[in-house]
Amino acid sequence: MGHPPPHHRRVAPRLWDSDWLQLRPLARLLADQAAAHIAPGATVVDYGCGDQPYAAMLRALGFDYRGADIDEHAEAAHDPLGKLAISPEGRVPLPDGSAGAVLSVQVLEHVADLDAYCAEIRRLLAPGGTLLLSTHGSWLYHPHPTDFRRWTRTGLILDLETRGLKVEEIFAIAGPLATTTMLRLTGFAFVLRGLPLLGPAIAGALAIVMNLRGLLEDAITPEQMRLDNACVYLVRARVR
Questions:
Q1: CA–CA separation, 212 vs 192, rounded Å?
Q2: Could you give the CA distance from residue 184 to residue 182 in angstroms, rounded to a whole number?
Q3: What is the pLDDT of residues 129-187, one digit of tens each?
Q4: Helix (H) or strand (E) holding 85
Q5: From the centroid of its chain, how far is CA 164?
Q6: How far is residue 55 CA from its own chain's centroid?
Q7: 234, 26 Cβ separation under 8 angstroms
Q8: N or C, where is the chain less crowded by C-beta within 10 Å?
Q9: pTM surpassing 0.85?
Q10: Check whether domain 21-176+230-239 has CATH 3.40.50.150, yes or no
């Protein structure tokens, strides 16, 4: 089946990946929201970019993508332009109001100081600029290197809006039925992939079955239940 690099898999996950049900709609939503709400040619700062999985996608949409991460990750491993080094205080080395959009994908749960993080987003955004931010509703503990929070829909909106960011729209990815299926799949796949010979193949086959089951479960879950009990939330917001 092949093994694409992790940064590519986040944009184009395979059905046999255990996180397909999360990553596939997240990448599609990010592309759709960016195309609809960010001005062509705008600078997009990926604040906590890791290995920059969405760089190629956003550049293909015509944006000036700039990845930013903490010092030990600020290197030109996947980006010929290099990454902007975030200071220990959380500051990105760009002028005030220089970003037409800020991207924050699965970062917020790892942030210790929400006030400082949101203040830097507000500083970077130009007037009328857009924030696209995703984070976990319900999911397993996953330190990278730390993991501090999970959110309800109302709690995420509250935490952003009390820090000067007006939420314009919030999207739910995977409701409670599908989430429980993904949790079980993650546990089984972790064990199976550690087995010699046939373990990884069995894990891939199980992932196909469980992902299709989760897709069906999500289709029959009432919309309000999905919105109130999502695995992942994607928010589109602006400075208040």
A1: 19
A2: 5
A3: 999 999 999 999 999 889 999 999 999 999 999 999 999 999 999 999 999 999 999 99
A4: strand 84-86
A5: 21
A6: 13
A7: yes
A8: N
A9: yes
A10: yes
CA gap 57, 65 in Å, rounded = 10
Residue 188 corresponds to which tokens in the numbers above? 């089984």
Domain ranges of the chain: 21-176+230-239
Neighbour-count burial of 86, counting CB atoms closer than 10 A to its CB (0-12 exposed, 13-18 middle, 19+ buried): buried
Other Cβ atoms closer than 10 A to 164: 14
Residue 35: both structure tokens together: 């195309």
In the block, tokens 């990553």 appear at 23
DSSP code per residue over 26-53 = HHHHHHHHHHHHS-TT-EEEEET-TT-T
Look up residue 153 and give its two tokens: 């829909």
Q: How far apart are CA 55 and CA 61, in angstroms?
A: 10
Under DSSP, is residue 218 helix (H, G, I), strand (E, B) or coil?
helix
pLDDT, tens digit, 9 for 90 and up, residues 97-137: 999 999 999 999 999 999 999 999 999 999 999 999 999 99
CB 23 within 8 A of CB 211: no
Q: What share of the chain is helix, strand, coil (3-state, %, to 5)?
A: 40, 20, 40
Using only C-alpha atoms, what is the Rg of the chain?
18
Which helix (DSSP H) or strand (DSSP E) does residue 190 occupy? helix 176-192
